[in-house]
């Protein structure tokens, strides 16, 4: 392993630890403390704003996420990677999807949620969101295996779809904002940890069958767009949820529509921001993990 590979391995380890630490922080704040539960509950309760208009599109997206659809998408991801002869990449993509979704179910059922009497209608732990984990892990898997010629546009489309799925769980009243945020962190941590098996591959252009792969610009600008937009959204989320902190001791009936909308927007911005940062970091790292293949030399007369 040369120096560049050592730097890349270190980066992946740090990224995994950072996302795992962020996941723990989200759990400790929004599940284990009364303040966090109150902010989360206010944001979720506000989902009645625009509910009738949003119900059909959000449930349509969420209902497409099932065990069968996940299996079909996983098979497609595997096929793309194998067709490109990226065999280790196929393994990474499958492990990310399987590992993230199994981890989410374990955390959801093993996590303890103290009862502070804030949200008596929803008992037990719901963090992380299973539907958001499916969307996040599938988006990451596709970002890993897409040919470079379409990776930038594909990355933005996948990130947008995953972020929408996360917000949809809030809009449908299925999950609190922190549940969706945690789901992205679970999928991101699995992606960075599992990608360590790709580091030993040579970081150079090598011959291969990816037709037209060198014509694309790569996911670089898309990664920058996601990271910039994600950080901006998280700043907005922090501001709006800080404003919500002022009313955590009020009853839901006392909160005005404006107060509820502030909390709702803050929760949605937090989900979108986390999606942008997590998927942006993955997209920025992929070109170093998966070098482009040069076209095979043609026979000459």
From TrEMBL:
InterPro entries: PAP2/HPO, PAP2/HPO_sf. Keywords: Membrane, Transmembrane, Transmembrane helix. Residues 87-195 form the Phosphatidic acid phosphatase type 2/haloperoxidase domain. It comes from the Bacteria. The chain crosses the membrane at residues 60-82, 89-107, 153-174, 180-199, 220-243, 263-286. It holds the Pfam family PAP2. The keyword Membrane applies. This is Membrane-associated phospholipid phosphatase.
């Amino acid at each position: 392993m040369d120096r560049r590979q050592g730097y890349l391995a270190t980066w992946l380890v740090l990224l995994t630890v950072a996302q795992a630490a962020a996941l723990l922080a989200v759990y400790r704040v929004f599940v284990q403390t009364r303040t966090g539960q109150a902010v989360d509950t206010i944001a979720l309760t506000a989902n009645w704003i625009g509910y009738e208009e949003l119900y059909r599109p959000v449930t349509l997206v969420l209902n497409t996420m099932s065990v069968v659809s996940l299996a079909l998408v996983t098979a497609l991801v595997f096929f793309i990677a194998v067709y490109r002869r990226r065999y280790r990449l196929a393994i990474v993509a499958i492990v990310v999807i399987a590992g993230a979704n199994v981890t989410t179910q374990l955390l959801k059922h093993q996590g303890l949620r103290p009862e502070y009497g804030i949200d008596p209608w929803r008992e037990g732990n719901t963090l992380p969101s299973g539907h958001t984990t499916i969307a996040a892990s599938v988006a990451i898997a596709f970002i890993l295996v897409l040919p470079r010629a379409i990776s930038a546009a594909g990355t933005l489309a996948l990130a947008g779809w995953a972020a929408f799925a996360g917000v949809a769980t809030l809009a449908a009243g299925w999950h609190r904002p922190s549940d969706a945020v945690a789901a992205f962190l679970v999928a991101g941590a699995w992606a960075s940890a599992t990608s360590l098996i790709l580091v030993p591959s040579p970081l150079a252009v090598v011959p291969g069958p990816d037709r037209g792969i060198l014509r694309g610009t790569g996911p670089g600008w898309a990664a920058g767009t996601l990271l910039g937009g994600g950080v901006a959204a998280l700043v907005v989320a922090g501001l709006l949820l800080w404003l919500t902190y002022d009313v955590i001791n009020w009853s839901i009936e006392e909160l005005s529509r404006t107060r509820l909308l502030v909390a709702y927007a803050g929760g949605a911005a937090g989900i979108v921001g986390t999606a942008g940062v997590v998927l942006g970091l993955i997209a920025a790292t992929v070109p170093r993990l998966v070098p482009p293949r040069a076209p095979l030399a043609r026979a000459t007369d």
